[in-house]
């Protein structure tokens, strides 16, 4: 019954927009963790049989250290993707008219739970908060305000390393764009940091965006980032996850205008794309696991494009489904390999249901 109610909601909210189709959106995207080396063939099958029939034209793969980097082999994940496997993904995407964009988390998300990720593990001096020790058992909230570690954007050695990774992964994926993440940055401009202490957090954040953008622009590549740090979480009531509570939001007036803002809202279909567009920024809306919200967000995106001024319309770029797991886990859920636990309450709010609702097979 829940699937039926979602279907009828889709019909209702799109009533009056018969002239609008998903193909009218410049960006019809899908974002997921890059597959492990053992799931590449399965993921290529998904590209051919699921993404292509839905007219998906943009695939953001969260690669991070899941690639056999030659510039910094010390940062590779175990059993990382080979260059040959990446070329298979590139070929499958190109065959289906899909723009492929790799992501490496820059600035924030340099740790998860009780573990630092590879960059700070190998180069601990890049850490913005070296005095915050990783706990044996992670809990939130905690006294240190630790969610994820950040690298220090003013460390003199950090950009040489990360830009070598960026260049290598962009070359491997033969791409004209790169996603730098930059979401949920809780540690920035910390008072005890010898380089960042006392500096304006919005200026630090915007400075890092500019630095990454300028590096990419040298090779004709566009920068994509998540949009949460550019939203005032307090004034809007959106809060500390989908908005900023540490004053980075003022960077919205300082960042370059040619970046792509990926505006994610998962619990409510907040209408912040209008805010970004009014700031002169291109924006896409990014749902996750709630089909009803995704339908409303899609309807809003059609509304924005159908009613905007000629100057504003091109900034409303479309939709991108996000999946916050590795590709293998999602494929197992999508194809029913992973079964619900016995006695569990049926739940329509899953990434795969959201994907099917937001992007039905074109023509069905």
TrEMBL record:
Q: Which InterPro entries match?
A: Beta_hexosaminidase_sua/sub, GH, Glyco_hydro_20_cat
Q: Which residues form the active site?
A: 184
One GO cellular component, as annotated? membrane
Q: Which Pfam families match?
A: Glyco_hydro_20
Q: Which residues form the Glycoside hydrolase family 20 catalytic domain?
A: 78-326
EC number(s) stated in the UniProt entry for this protein: 3.2.1.52
- Tell me which UniProt keywords the record has, alphabetically: Hydrolase, Signal
Reaction catalysed?
Answer: Hydrolysis of terminal non-reducing N-acetyl-D-hexosamine residues in N-acetyl-beta-D-hexosaminides
Residue ranges of coiled coil: none
Q: Which GO terms describe its molecular function?
A: beta-N-acetylhexosaminidase activity
**Entry keyword annotation includes Flavoprotein:** no
Instruction: Point out the signal peptide segment.
Output: 1-18
GO BP of this protein: carbohydrate metabolic process; glycosaminoglycan metabolic process
**Keyword set includes Hydrolase:** yes
Describe the family membership recorded for this protein in Swiss-Prot or TrEMBL.
Answer: Belongs to the glycosyl hydrolase 20 family.
Q: Which PANTHER family match?
A: BETA-HEXOSAMINIDASE (PTHR22600), BETA-N-ACETYLHEXOSAMINIDASE (PTHR22600:SF57)
Protein name per the record: beta-N-acetylhexosaminidase
């Amino acid at each position: 019954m829940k699937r039926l109610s979602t279907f009828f909601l889709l019909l209702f909210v799109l009533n009056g927009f018969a002239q609008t189709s998903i193909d009218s959106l410049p960006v019809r995207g899908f974002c997921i963790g890059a597959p492990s080396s053992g799931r590449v063939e399965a993921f290529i099958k998904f590209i051919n049989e699921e993404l292509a029939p839905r007219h998906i034209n943009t695939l953001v793969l969260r690669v991070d250290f899941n690639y056999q980097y030659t510039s910094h082999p010390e940062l590779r994940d175990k059993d990382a993707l080979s260059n040959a496997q990446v070329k298979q993904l590139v070929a499958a995407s190109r065959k289906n008219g899909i723009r492929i964009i790799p992501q490496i988390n820059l600035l924030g998300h340099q740790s998860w739970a009780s573990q630092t990720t590879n960059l700070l593990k190998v180069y601990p001096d890049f850490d913005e908060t070296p005095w915050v020790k990783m706990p044996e058992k992670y809990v939130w909230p905690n006294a240190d305000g630790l969610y994820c570690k950040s690298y220090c954007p003013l460390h003199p050695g950090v950009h040489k390393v990360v830009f070598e990774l960026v260049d290598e992964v962009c070359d491997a994926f033969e791409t004209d764009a790169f996603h730098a993440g930059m979401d949920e940055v809780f540690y920035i401009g910390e008072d005890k940091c010898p380089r960042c202490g006392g500096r304006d957090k919005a200026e630090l954040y915007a400075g890092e965006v500019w630095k990454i953008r300028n590096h990419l622009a040298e090779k004709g590549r566009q920068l994509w980032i998540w949009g949460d740090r550019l939203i005032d979480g307090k004034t809007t009531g959106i809060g500390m996850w989908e908005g900023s509570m540490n004053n980075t939001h003022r960077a919205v007036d300082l960042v370059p205008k040619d970046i792509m803002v990926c505006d994610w809202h998962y619990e409510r279909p907040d209408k912040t794309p209008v805010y970004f567009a009014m700031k002169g920024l291109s924006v896409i809306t990014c749902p996750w696991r709630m089909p009803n919200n995704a339908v409303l967000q899609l309807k809003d995106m059609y509304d924005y494009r159908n009613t905007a001024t000629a100057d504003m319309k091109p900034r409303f770029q479309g939709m991108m489904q996000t999946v916050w797991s590795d590709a293998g886990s999602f494929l197992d859920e999508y194809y029913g390999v992973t079964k619900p636990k016995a006695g569990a309450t049926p739940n329509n709010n899953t990434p795969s249901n959201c994907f099917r609702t937001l992007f039905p097979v074109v023509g069905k």
